[in-house]
């Protein structure tokens, strides 16, 4: 559908990529990966037509409609939420707005009604399937976690994270032929991510997506576009498969170069020894020509653009034994109670991950502990000699004057130090050259996050409180942050939706539920094993909801089956007996759930196998492919059976509703 040929693009004097050629096909989903600054967003902008390439071509059929989610978009605060979602089809949105304006004027002055123009506008709405489009937009908004009661409220009623969800809904609701999404999972909760995964699986056109979420890429992508080594390489498979394939490909190319260099050295030794000897002179000349030919095709592999920051968190001094005491903390926002009588103690050396569904007050608890928000009741007290470093989700508020340079801002936290020291600290966070003159207001999300971490390292706290620290970091930075925090000798309190991140660091899990807190002294794997509940795993959350519905139905099913429809002598005329059909649907639903659970257990088992250290080194490539095929087949069955289960549940619910009305 989209053909890319010999594409090249530079930024200033820096070459981002060249010689990029690939094709984007319907039904395929491409993860666009690479280090920050490697050119991922630039490539997406070239593909979407927002930027021109320096060389090469992007061929897109004229009638193709692109749906593009960009990182930076204007927020339409005065526009209704559903209106913003409909803006993805500009002609339809303008026609709907003008129709409303015509009707409003006609209500005030009936003689001013322009019937001809109203008819033209109605034709535009009909041509764009406008009435169905509004219903589709509402469904997408709800799938992304935006409830129906706010759909006709202005965007200004939503928080920043929910505004970004609406902008994503605008892209999805625009009925595009191709989707190009830059970090679509930012600010989505687990169920919304799961909904988006299903939406993308069902989407029939090509999808190109940038994401730092390992699991999302594994669940969604069929191919990976890797922006590295100053080019773009296409790999088949999801992100986990790509990582292994890329390593094998690089190792193969390095070994090939090493082998050829070895042959050249051997031949050169022969030439050097026997060039002057008459009997060997002809042979030496022949080998010399062979050396020249081999050397012509020998090119040094370009270096990787992937760069890893250096996180070093070194406390000034140890804290006292008791680090934090939260006593009876309650907090409500209007009628919404998010925390109620929360008690929590944190001791020196704890590595606490606070988890729970969105909206239960995890970030609110951190803000109260940091004194950024006042509790309605209770208090939070820090212990003796605690020096706390805080990474907030909305850390941009810390930057003050946005027109200051990065170097000026960071220098404030280095009293008595010279410019060389400051630039050294910035270098650890991958800022170099002219980056020191960059305005704070011009920083990307990842750059801003790294600046906050640079400040934290300079403050040398013995307690780190981190609220969603991985949201804007690329994969290399997340891996480097895990290494840095792993060596941190102080106390760690974190909130994160990134399951991999939590698994690497936490030694204690605090789960917040509405009206309840579970404090588990162990790793995340141990907690999941003990609780049987994984809030950070989309499939587990969905499966839990299904199980709860099954348990609820089982508890009431006997009474329902026994009472049936009182006074109803039998089936309604013209159709099968509803009671029998309902029983069949319940049996079908149970069978489908059993199949889903078996397949999901097998999927988890295969993932554990792939994650085993050294698995790829000791396993034959054909066996890896076999397991990968089995994994994809199991995932496909889960999707199909889940859809069948949902269909059976909907039909059963309709029958029960009809039964109740009778």
Fraction of residues in H or I helices: 40-55%
Shape: globular
Stretches where pLDDT falls below 50 for ≥5 residues? Answer: 556-576
Terminal Cα separation, in Å?
A: 53 Å
| Largest sheet composition | 6 strands, mixed
What share of the residues does DSSP label as strand, in percent? 15-25%
| Overall strand count | 18
Instruction: Write down the overall mean pLDDT.
Output: 82
Return Rg in Å: 30 Å
Helices and strands: which structural class? alpha/beta
Strand order of the largest sheet: 5-6-7-3-8-9
Helix run count: 21
Question: Could you outline the blueprint of secondary structure elements for this entry?
Answer:
Elements: E1 2-11, E2 14-24, E3 29-33, H1 40-48, E4 55-59, E5 66-69, H2 81-86, H3 90-108, H4 115-127, H5 130-143, H6 160-172, E6 178-182, H7 190-202, E7 207-210, H8 214-220, E8 223-228, E9 231-236, H9 239-274, H10 278-296, E10 322-333, E11 336-347, E12 351-355, H11 362-369, E13 377-382, E14 388-391, H12 406-411, H13 419-428, H14 445-459, E15 463-467, H15 475-486, E16 491-495, H16 499-505, E17 508-513, E18 516-520, H17 524-531, H18 538-563, H19 578-611, H20 615-618, H21 621-661
Parallel strand pairs: 3-7, 3-8, 5-6, 6-7, 12-16, 12-17, 14-15, 15-16
Antiparallel strand pairs: 1-2, 1-4, 8-9, 10-11, 10-13, 17-18
């Amino acid at each position: 559908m989209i053909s890319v040929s010999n594409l090249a693009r530079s930024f200033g004097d820096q070459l981002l990529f060249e010689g990029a050629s690939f094709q984007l096909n319907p039904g395929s989903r491409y993860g666009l990966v690479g280090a920050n600054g490697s050119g991922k967003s630039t490539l997406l902008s070239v593909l979407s037509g927002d930027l021109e390439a320096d060389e090469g071509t992007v061929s897109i059929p004229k009638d193709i409609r692109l749906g593009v989610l960009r990182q930076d978009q204007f927020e339409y605060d005065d526009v209704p939420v559903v209106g913003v979602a409909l803006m993805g089809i500009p002609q339809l949105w303008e026609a709907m707005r003008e129709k409303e304006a015509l009707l409003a004027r006609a209500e005030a002055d009936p003689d001013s009604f322009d019937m001809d123009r109203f008819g033209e506008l109605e034709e535009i709405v009909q041509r764009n399937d406008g009435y169905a489009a509004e219903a589709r937009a509402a469904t997408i908004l709800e799938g992304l976690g935006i409830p129906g009661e706010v759909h006709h409220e202005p965007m200004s009623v939503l928080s920043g994270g929910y505004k970004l969800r609406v902008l994503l809904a605008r892209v999805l609701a625009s009925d595009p032929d191709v989707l190009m999404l830059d970090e679509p999972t930012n600010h989505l909760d687990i169920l919304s991510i799961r909904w988006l995964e299903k939406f993308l699986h069902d989407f029939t056109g090509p999808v190109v997506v940038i994401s730092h979420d390992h699991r999302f890429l594994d669940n969604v992508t069929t191919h990976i576009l890797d922006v590295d080594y100053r080019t773009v390489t296409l790999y088949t498979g999801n992100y986990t498969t790509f990582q292994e394939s890329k390593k094998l490909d690089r190792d193969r190319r390095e070994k090939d170069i090493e082998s050829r260099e070895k042959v050249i050295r051997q031949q050169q030794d022969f030439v050097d020894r026997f060039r002057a000897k008459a009997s060997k002179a002809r042979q030496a000349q022949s080998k010399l020509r062979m050396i020249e030919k081999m050397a012509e095709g020998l090119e040094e592999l370009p270096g990787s653009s992937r760069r890893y920051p250096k996180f070093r968190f070194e406390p000034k001094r140890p804290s006292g034994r008791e680090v934090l005491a939260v006593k009876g903390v309650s907090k409500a926002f209007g009628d919404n109670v998010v925390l109620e009588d929360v008690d929590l103690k944190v001791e020196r050396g704890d590595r606490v991950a606070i988890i729970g569904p969105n909206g239960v007050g995890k970030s609110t608890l951190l803000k109260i502990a940091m004194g950024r928000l006042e509790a309605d009741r209770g208090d939070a007290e820090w212990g003796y000699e605690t020096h706390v470093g805080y990474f907030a989700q909305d850390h941009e508020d810390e930057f003050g004057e946005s027109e200051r340079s990065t170097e000026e801002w960071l220098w404030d936290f280095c009293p008595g130090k010279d410019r060389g020291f400051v630039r050294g600290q910035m270098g650890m966070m991958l800022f170099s050259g002219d980056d020191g003159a960059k305005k704070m207001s011009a920083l990307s999300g990842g750059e801003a996050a790294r600046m906050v971490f640079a400040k934290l390292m300079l403050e040398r706290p013995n307690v780190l409180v981190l609220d969603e620290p991985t949201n804007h970091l690329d994969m290399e930075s997340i891996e480097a942050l895990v290494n840095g925090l792993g060596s941190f000798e102080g106390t760690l309190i974190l909130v994160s939706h990134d399951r991999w991140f939590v698994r690497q660091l936490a030694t204690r899990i605090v789960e917040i539920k509405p009206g309840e807190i579970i404090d588990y002294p162990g790793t995340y794997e141990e907690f999941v094993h003990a609780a049987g509940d994984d809030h950070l795993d989309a499939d587990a959350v969905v499966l839990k909801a299904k199980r709860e519905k099954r348990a609820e139905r089982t508890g009431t099913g006997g009474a329902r089956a026994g009472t049936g429809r009182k006074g109803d002598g039998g089936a309604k005329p013209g159709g099968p007996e509803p009671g029998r059909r309902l029983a069949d649907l319940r049996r079908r639903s149970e069978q489908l759930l059993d199949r889903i659970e078996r397949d999901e257990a097998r999927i988890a088992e295969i993932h554990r196998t792939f994650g085993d250290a050294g698995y790829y080194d000791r396993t034959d490539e054909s066996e890896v492919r076999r397991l990968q095929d089995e994994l994809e087949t199991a995932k496909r069955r889960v999707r199909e059976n889940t859809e069948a289960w949902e269909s059976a549940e909907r039909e059963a619910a309709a029958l029960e509703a009809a039964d109740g009305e009778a």
